[in-house]
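WARN  no MSA supplied for this record, continuing single-sequence
INFO  ligand: NDP
INFO  echoing inputs
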Amino acid sequence: MKTLNNQTALVTGGSRGIGRAIALAMAEEGANVAILYAGNETAAAQTVQEAEAFGVKALSYRCDVSSEQAVKETVDQVLKDFGRVDILVNNAGIVRDGFLLSMKEEAFDDVINTNLKGAFHLIRQLYSHMMRRKSGRIINISSIVGLNGNAAQANYAAAKAGIIGLTKSTAKELAARGVTCNAIAPGFIHSDMTDAMPEKARDAISSQIPMKRVGQPQDVAALAVFLAGPGASYITGEVIRVDGGLAM
Ligand code: NDP
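INFO  complex generated
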């Protein structure tokens, strides 16, 4: 028996990396999937095609999650297309790294607007829908950097720490309405985002991972599927690391 049969999952940043792995893992468990992406149409189409191979309905939507208006229009369209959203995964994220003294205000704002405000917009657009139906699972992708901070990532760490506050506040507001909200804090996961780092920096982090391997998007996806499924119905406001022990 598939654990997410007949449910609909909306996954932001579902075209690539961790979001793509989450969308596909949920599709494999029987969920219909709506994926949001920023601009990479080819990657989004590829994810849709692979999700459909699991026999579910899958559609992609170009939507900049930092825009409240775009999120509103897209969520309205997703609800028209699928009729419901049971699972929201706020995964879309970017980096604009730099040390504080050289970090431009724009780099700070871009990261906050996409990584933190994006999740805020999505939660707000689906709040009443989930509340009315007295069910829903919200899963926000934070980072161990949001727990511990990181040099040259003040903007990113602030956004990811913000995600934890947003998660716990949402969990408290919606707990009595049957909606859970949890955060996943991945460590160092193989994706385009980490591939873009200088090799020296990648090696330095990898060598510190107690489990001696870089994580794969599927490692994060497995937890997202669990948090969306029946086994997690009494878990809310939690932050769970998926990091091979890196931030322990
Ligand atoms: P990738 O860079 O591989 O993928 C990013 C995804 O986000 C893409 O699907 C991209 O769409 C989408 N996206 C970016 N900006 C926007 C936007 N404004 N609106 C809508 N979608 C957008 O990242 P990862 O898979 O590595 O990361 C996914 C999440 O996990 C992020 O929140 C990241 O911070 C977090 N994370 C990652 C870690 C890692 O080690 N990789 C560690 C900890 C947390 P498109 O394809 O169209 O560009």
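The pocket of NDP is lined by residues 12-13, 15-19, 36-40, 43, 63-66, 91-94, 114-115, 141, 143, 186, 188-189, 191-194 (CB under 6 Å).
INFO  checksum written, moving to next record
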